Every structure is written in structure tokens, then in C-alpha cells.
Amino acid sequence: MLKAEGLGVRYGRLIALSDVDLIARPGEILAVIGANGSGKSSLLKALAGFVPSSGSITLEALTGTAPHIGYMPQDIGVRAALSVVETVLLGRLKQLHYRVGEADLAAAGSALERLGIAHLATRPLGALSGGQRQLVFLAQVMASDPQFLFLDEPVSALDIRNQLQVMETVRSLTREHGLTTLTILHDLNLAARFADRIAVLKEGRLLACAAPREALSQKTLEQAFSIEAALGEGVEGHMLIEALRPVG
């Protein structure tokens, strides 16, 4: 379980987050949404311990061991000379003990297979498209066997098929392994379809944190994004959001 109370982040005089209270549970996907500059990336970085913060953060692993966070940032440096499988194995650094074992290769292979990119295993990372590299870095995080999965815009460079495949894979892994998953998404319909709960940020403050139909009300969408939206239902029963026009 993850619990944040009174969480705040400042960069000099800039207040990126202010007094955020948040709970995320094992087996649950919590999507974080908000307009540009609303504090989404700062929230994930603070929870992962990558930026100084105020307030309290509690991470409790189901196994009773020290919590292991798998973090995929929005901007990732590319080591072009490495192969795809070598890049994924970097996610196993804590387990490698100066050599690559069968378990490490199996974890890397499984992650590549689940994301549909096993055929790229021997390709140089620098020869891949931006979307393919994004899948490789997600495989790297998956291969690390995390208990907490923090993903900053994991589908931003992907076509619609791969967006669905990645989100379905993330949901399956979250359920199967009891992961506590937080993911930043810009597509409101992906958030409504795949998230158990949605946290809505505006200017560093939490407007809502609830199930999709409660969090994505017309009032909250207008407050967070300055849009008028029509709300409906898809053929599979999940919520649909259509942005109609800007307001204000």
C-alpha cells in the first residue's frame, strides 16, 4: 500500500505540489491526470523519492520486505550501443550480482514477450523508433520485479494498438502480482477504461481521487482542464469522455 499525507514539493519559489493526500492499494491502478504543469510528474518523483518533499510517504510491500519501486520516467536517456535485451537486463541490476543468470534472462524474455517485442531482442536500441524504445524501457521496469509501479506517460509515443496492449499488460501485471500501480495518462478515455481510481490534479492540488465515474464529473473536468465535456458509456460498459469545447 502507498499512502501520502500532506505531500508538498517546491522548486525554489515554485510550488509544484501542495498538501496532497493520496492512497493507492495493491492490485489497483491509480491514474494521475491533469493539465500541463499541474504537478503530475512531480507527484511520481516525490513518491519515488527522487525529489525532496514535505509531508509523509508510506510504502508497505505485501511481502514484508523493503519496497521495490519500478519507475519509468517521461524522458529516458538512450544508450544507443546496447541491444534491446541488454537494456532490459539493466532493470535487473539489483539481482545480477555481477553476472547474468538464467532467472535474469527469463525475466527479460518474459517482459519482452508480454509487450510483443521479443523479436527485437538483439536489435541495437538506437535503431528503434521512439515508440519501440518506449516499449523496451517499460519491459526494463517490468523485468525488475517491482512491488510499486510508477509510470510517467507510458503510452505517449505509441500507436493506438500498442497503447491498448501496454495498458492491458499493466492491468494484468497489477492484478496478477498485487502491484501498486500509479500511471500518468493524458488520454482521459484510457484512464477511465483501465484505472480503478483516478487522481485529478490542478496547479499542484488534488481536486478528486475516486473511481472514474466520480472523479471525471463534468464539474471536475471543467475545473481541471477548462473544457466542456460530454460523458457517455462504451459498448463494454466503461466510461467515455468527449471534449466538446474550451471554456473560460
From TrEMBL:
Keywords: ATP-binding, Nucleotide-binding. SUPFAM superfamilies: P-loop containing nucleoside triphosphate hydrolases. Gene3D superfamilies: P-loop containing nucleotide triphosphate hydrolases. This is ABC transporter. GO terms for molecular function: ATP binding; ATP hydrolysis activity. CDD domains: ABC_Iron-Siderophores_B12_Hemin. Residues 2-228 form the ABC transporter domain. It comes from the Bacteria. It comes from Candidatus Raskinella chloraquaticus. The lineage of its organism: Bacteria, Pseudomonadati, Pseudomonadota, Alphaproteobacteria, Hyphomicrobiales. Belongs to the ABC transporter superfamily. It holds the Pfam family ABC_tran.
